[in-house]
């Protein structure tokens, strides 16, 4: 039996079915609920609450906040400023998924087995102590390997890295879901085109629609690279994806939709 924070869970179930007859549902060879788009913000910075939350609330879409649990309610946490537990719980009540980003953000590939286990299990427990349902982990710096993935599978239903790919739907490997960076830590596209333009982001949405896939964007709203221009791109990409019939969901919402098919 998985632990659930009732209200947020109910809201997420509703959000997964958001948009009763999206254009995408009429796309051939696209089984519901795809194509999907998930927004994941890393590191639990205060900007998740002050900057991202207002925009997404206005757009009516959820996100996933990946939290470094050692830095919550900890005055000695390194910069940037982090959300406190009350703010994290407020996002959860608003329909956001709260994910683990490990306890201390060390690169998991470099840890011994005991420490790796403690980072993965401990961070989930700390979030559960706040009353949160936690089924997703985001690998720090997107670093993983088969050993890390196997450890993640023992404690989570899904794990995310940053390989720049649009995921298939249903996903082939839920412990190695790929994300595309938006606003910060961007990478050039396959043909060398800049990875931080509005056209690039829209092309990833088009790819998700064409492939009936699952696009997951990785965000760092505290980063200087995620400036006002990039923030406005985020808003425009959300509108564009809605216009193309893409459904917004959290990671657990997507996997839950998969289980209930
Ligand atoms: Zn991180």
UniProtKB/TrEMBL annotation:
GO terms for cellular component: extracellular region. The keyword Signal applies. It is found in: Secreted. It comes from Deinobacterium chartae. This is Peptidoglycan/xylan/chitin deacetylase (PgdA/CDA1 family). Pfam families: Polysacc_deac_1. Gene3D superfamilies: Glycoside hydrolase/deacetylase. GO terms for molecular function: hydrolase activity, acting on carbon-nitrogen (but not peptide) bonds. GO terms for biological process: carbohydrate metabolic process.
